[in-house]
Amino acid sequence: MLFDHDNDEPIRVLTDAESWALLDNARHGRLATTAAGELDIVPINFKASHSKLYLKTTPGTKVAELTIHPQVAFEADGILQDEAWSVVVKGTARVLEHSDDIAAAEAVGIETWLPTTKSVYLEVTPSSIAGRHFQLGAEPEQTTARDY
User: Fold this and answer.
1) Which helix (H) or strand (E) holds 27?
2) Which residues, other chains included, contact 82 with Cβ-Cβ below 8 Å and sequence gap of 6+?
3) Cβ neighbours of residue 127 under 8 Å, at least 6 residues apart?
4) Of 1, 29, 60, 116, which sees the most CB atoms within 10 A?
5) Among candidate residues 31, 85, 35, the one with its CA nearest the CA of residue 54
6) Strand partners, 83
7) 54: which strand partners?
């Protein structure tokens, strides 16, 4: 198990440090954006570094959406045989345009899924982070009998 749970509770709330440690070892997540009242969520490559998220993508809808409305949510998770985790980051995203910022983002080493050229770097500065760790198992039996 990645984390011990008190009293064998199936859900454990993670500290910010524990959440960042999980993100430090993850490479894929989902970015949620909004523009003109429409929500969008897309899978994306990322790397956590110094309590920020760096993403590498292609120009398109998500870049246009976060330019209009920079508030985003990001989620990454991991599922193992008998445990799982989920971390949600909410914050402000920006397209990196200055060469020093782009060089810093390139230095974190974002690994991509697809063999396509990705020329846009994004940085997410968090306003909050929330993580959970789960012990997986079958749902407990429930009874339909009620005391009246």
Assistant:
1) none
2) 1, 135, 136, 137
3) 90, 91, 92
4) 29
5) 31
6) 135
7) 47, 123
Ranges under pLDDT 50 in the chain: none
Q: What is the structure's pLDDT at 111? A: 87
C-alpha to C-alpha distance for 72 and 79, rounded to whole angstroms = 24
Instruction: Determine the 3-state secondary structure of 99 from DSSP.
Output: helix
What is the torsional sign of CA 21, 25, 29, 32?
positive
Q: What pLDDT is stored for residue 116 in this prediction?
A: 83
Q: Is 6 helix (H, G, I), strand (E, B) or coil?
A: helix
Hey, what are 140's tokens? 């407990």
Model's pTM, two decimal places? Answer: 0.89
Nearest to 130 by CA among 88, 91, 90, 76: 88
Nearest residue to 56 via CA among 22, 89, 96, 99: 96
For residue 105, give both structure tokens: 């983002």
Query: In whole angstroms, how far apart are CA 105 and each of 50, 82, 89?
Result: 11, 34, 18
Closest Cα to residue 131, out of 48, 45, 57? 48
Per-residue DSSP letter, 50: T
Distance CA 2, CA 110 (A): 24
